[in-house]
């Protein structure tokens, strides 16, 4: 599943090709994906200029003067830049043509989404799908003090608190496991039993792990394809994720696998307390 780094890599990849470009045509080959496409999507953006790209959680945003298009890649989607004349393949559902080039949404499993937020309906942050999202981990709003304060009411395991996404977005299963390893925190530790000092280590670790994944072109899935069609390779550098039974890269102890909230967690008992 594309996680925050993959979406950010996609945004960085498409941004130079779409910023300031005018939409010359919109092609929809279905009525919708996870949800129906906006009924008048073509009319809404045809001949309009994409002013900027953005991202909120795993939603990639295309900002226009009168509103924003929200694109979610679902379980297996990707968004790529290609020549406008490229013939569509089976899973190519949406083309946004920008003259010679186009933005093409491919989504074999069709869990993705394309939604419209009109500026007349208020601030984008208040959109139904965005307003309950936690802070962005790569912004100044994500601090150890913030995480510590928010975690005071949570007695659930820190791993599950991170995955919930209502305090901080984008720390998916892989990144939570890797960040907790780097911070030396056992994934089973209750969130409200972790000190501010340890949250300082954790916020740094989360930023580092996400930044590393973005710099390496996203993680994880074999089928993840960035805007340039290249696959990501963050997976080669995991310390604990998917390494059950293998030696810890730091202490040579054995990496353990447990299940928390039906998700796999991987950790080292020596390095993570
Ligand atoms: Zn270890």
Automatic annotation (TrEMBL):
UniProtKB keywords: DNA damage, DNA repair, DNA-binding, Glycosidase, Hydrolase, Lyase, Metal-binding, Multifunctional enzyme, Zinc, Zinc-finger
A Pfam family annotated for this UniProt entry = zf-FPG_IleRS
Q: Where is the active site?
A: 2 (schiff-base intermediate with dna), 3 (proton donor), 58 (proton donor), 263 (proton donor)
Q: Which cofactor does it need?
A: Zn(2+)
Q: Which InterPro entries match?
A: FPG_cat, FPG_Glyclase, FPG_N, H2TH_FPG, Ribosomal_uS13-like_H2TH, Znf_DNA_glyclase/AP_lyase, Znf_FPG/IleRS
**Family per record:** Belongs to the FPG family.
Mind telling me what this protein is named? Formamidopyrimidine-DNA glycosylase
Organism whose genome encodes this protein: Undibacterium amnicola
Q: Which gene encodes it?
A: mutM
């Amino acid at each position: 599943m594309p996680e925050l780094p993959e979406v950010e890599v996609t945004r960085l990849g498409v941004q130079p090709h779409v910023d300031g470009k005018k939409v010359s045509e919109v092609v929809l080959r279905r009525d919708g994906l996870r949800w129906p496409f906006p009924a008048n999507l073509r009319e809404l953006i045809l001949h309009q200029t994409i002013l900027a790209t953005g991202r909120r959680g795993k939603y990639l945003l295309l900002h226009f003067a009168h509103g924003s298009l929200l694109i979610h890649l679902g379980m297996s989607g990707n968004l790529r830049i290609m020549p406008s004349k490229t013939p569509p393949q089976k899973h190519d559902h949406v083309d946004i043509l920008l003259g010679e080039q186009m933005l093409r949404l491919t989504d074999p499993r069709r869990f993705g989404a394309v939604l419209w937020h009109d500026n007349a309906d208020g601030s984008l942050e208040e959109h139904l799908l965005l307003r309950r999202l936690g802070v962005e981990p790569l912004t100044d709003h994500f601090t150890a003090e913030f995480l510590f304060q928010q975690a005071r009411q949570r007695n659930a395991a820190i791993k599950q608190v991170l995955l919930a996404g209502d305090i901080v977005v984008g720390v998916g299963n892989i990144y939570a496991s890797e960040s907790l390893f780097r911070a030396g925190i056992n994934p089973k530790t209750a969130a409200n039993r972790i000190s501010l000092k340890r949250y300082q280590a954790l916020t740094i670790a989360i930023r580092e792990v996400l930044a590393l994944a973005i710099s390496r072109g996203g993680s994880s899935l074999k089928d993840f394809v960035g805007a340039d069609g290249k696959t990501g390779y963050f997976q080669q550098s995991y310390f604990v994720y998917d390494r059950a039974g293998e030696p810890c890269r730091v202490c040579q102890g054995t990496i353990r696998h447990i299940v928390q909230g039906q998700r796999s967690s991987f950790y080292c008992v020596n390095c993570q307390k």
